[in-house]
Amino acid sequence: MTSSKKNSDSQSIDKWLETLFLDPLTTFLDETAFRIDIFESGTQFIIEADIPNPSTETTVSLQENMVVISVNCGGKIRTRKVDWPFDVRQHEVSAYQIDQVLEITIDKEKTLASVDRLIEIKR
Q: Which domain of life is it from (predicted)?
C-alpha cells in the first residue's frame, strides 16, 4: 500500500471515528444497551464492550461493513451494531471475553474472503 493511500485511509477512519462518537445515538446506546469503546493501534482496530451482568450468551457476527454484538440478559436481547467505513468481513477478526469485558480485534492487514460469519468468542 502506498504512503498516500495509507494517509487517505487513516484520514477517513479518523473522520469516521469522530462522527461515530459525536453521534447522540452512540451515547444513548451506551446507556440503554451496553457501553462500547473503539481504539486503534498500528495493526488493529479494537472494540471493547462492557457486557451487562448477568448475561447468559454473547455472540459476535460480521455482516458486510458491520460488527454485530448481541447479548442475552435474562431473556432480553441487547444488540449493538458498529458500522465501519470498509467491509469488515475481509479482515481477520477475533474476540475474547474476560468477565464482563468483550474485546474484538479487527486486523488491518490480514485479509479473508467476504463472507458473513459468526466469530468464536475465546474465554
A: Bacteria
- Three cell numbers written together for 25: 445515538
Radius of gyration of the chain (CA): 15
| pTM (predicted TM-score) | 0.80
Quick one: pLDDT at residue 4?
47
Q: How far is CA 11 from CA 4, 22, 53, 118, in A?
A: 11, 17, 37, 29
- Domains annotated on the chain, with CATH: 3-122 (2.60.40.790)
Burial 73-100 (b: 16+ CB within 10 A, else e): beeeebebebebebebbbbebebebeee
